[in-house]
Design goal:
Blueprint lengths: L6 H4 L12 H12 L6 E5 L6 H12 L16 E5 L6 H11 L9 E6 L6 H12 L5 E7 L7 H4 L3 E4 L5 H15 L2 E2 L1 H10 L4 H14 L4 E2 L1 H8 L4 H12 L3 H13 L4 H18 L12 H13 L2 H17 L6 H13 L1 H20 L1
Parallel strand pairs: 1-4, 1-5, 2-3, 3-4, 6-7
């Protein structure tokens, strides 16, 4: 049996053109290299799985004119040194690194030191690193990577050129997943890829791990919407659309039965009410064609949002969203959490009657004043 290689490693970018969603970073680095204006100390910061270490390796290879076609080849070269600051965070570890910096490269032009999770260094280690970072030898390049820039001391930040990596957009992640699926001969559904991209929360590495999981779970190399929601234990959009219809038509019985069905499937009441609030938000966004682009869903789901938003008035959405938010805030302090959610749902189910009574009362008062 052949060794399985996860997609995050197999399809790791080997050039800037392959990096997804970080054009502002890759363009700047490419120009700096082309114009021989690359700083000797760089700090890459941003969320997990967005390409910080990958870009650091690409920079290290480019400035030494080293090209690879296969990302699995690694960085077996005398010019690139990678240090994990999470497990090598002492003064002695940094002193060992400084001792290595004193020797020029045996081959190539530069020695590149990639220090991952640099915020994990102790204050003593940071202080030992300051002088070398500020005045490194001409052949040394330091690339520091961190997910928590605020934990890096200001004296280190002031010595580095800082690059802020963004969370990757859902559309970019789903597009990359589609590209990988095409290469692997995997049949996919757009809704499934968008769901994986949303669950990844802006991290390409997380998205690729989830993608591998769904492919393994599925039969016959197919990533479908149904297998995705089953495997990731995500509540189907259909539940929220049906619940909104029942709430708007004051069908209290089906509201409670649907919520009971959701609980029987193992979903948490808190997650459901948070998801329902997000659904109302997405309905409000769908009211205007100018803002419907803010929805990070597939085109078919976007069409369903538009259809339902045309039927439900904005006053209902706003009041229901307010009730859902209040339920979310007080959920954990409630003694009977199921009843707490059910009460919120019953309130929503009678919003139309309450709004009608308010309108009748207002019209009656106006008539009396006129007479």
């Amino acid at each position: 049996m052949e060794n399985f290689v996860v997609s995050a490693r197999k399809y790791r970018p080997v050039g800037f053109e392959e990096v997804v969603g970080q054009e502002h970073i890759t363009t700047t680095l490419q120009n700096a290299i082309d114009n021989n204006q690359l700083a000797q100390a760089l700090l890459f910061c941003g969320p997990r799985g967005v390409g910080k270490t990958t870009c650091a390796r690409i920079v290290a290879r480019m400035i030494n004119d080293q090209e690879i076609d296969n990302p699995l080849m690694g960085n077996d070269t005398f010019n690139i040194y990678e240090l994990d600051a999470a497990s090598n965070n002492s003064v002695d570890d940094i002193r060992n690194l400084i001792d290595q910096v004193r020797y020029p490269p045996q081959q190539g032009k530069f020695k590149v030191y990639i220090i991952d999770e640099v915020h994990m260094l102790s204050n003593q280690a940071f202080n030992a690193f300051l002088k070398t970072l500020e005045e490194p030898p001409s052949y040394a390049i330091f690339i520091l990577a961190t997910t928590e820039k605020h934990k890096v001391i200001p004296t280190i930040l002031s010595r580095c050129q800082i690059f802020d990596f963004n969370r990757i957009e859902v559309s970019d992640i789903s597009g990359q997943l589609q590209s990988i699926a095409d290469k692997e001969g995997i049949e996919t559904e757009d809704e499934a890829l968008h769901l994986i991209a949303q669950k990844a929360d802006g991290a390409m590495r997380d998205a690729l791990s989830l993608f591998d999981l769904i492919v393994t779970f599925s039969h016959g190399k197919k990533v479908s919407y149904q297998t995705t929601i089953d495997n990731l234990h995500i509540l189907d959009y259909d539940y929220y659309f049906r619940m909104t219809d029942y709430l708007f038509t004051e069908d209290t019985a089906n509201v409670l039965l649907t919520f009971d069905d959701i609980l029987k499937k193992g979903f948490d009441g808190h997650n459901f009410i948070v998801g329902l609030a997000s659904h109302f938000r997405d309905l409000m966004v769908s009211k205007d064609t100018a803002t419907i682009g803010l929805l990070e869903v597939s085109d078919s789901i976007k069409a369903r949002y538009k259809e339902q938003s045309d039927k439900v008035p904005l006053s209902f959405m706003l009041t229901a969203l307010n009730i859902a938010s209040s339920c979310d805030i007080n959920y954990k302090s409630s003694k009977n959490q199921r009843l707490h959610v059910e009460l919120a749902l019953v309130k929503m189910a009678h919003l139309q009657s309450a709004i009608s009574l308010t309108q009748v009362s207002t019209n009656g008062d106006s008539s009396k004043k006129k007479s």
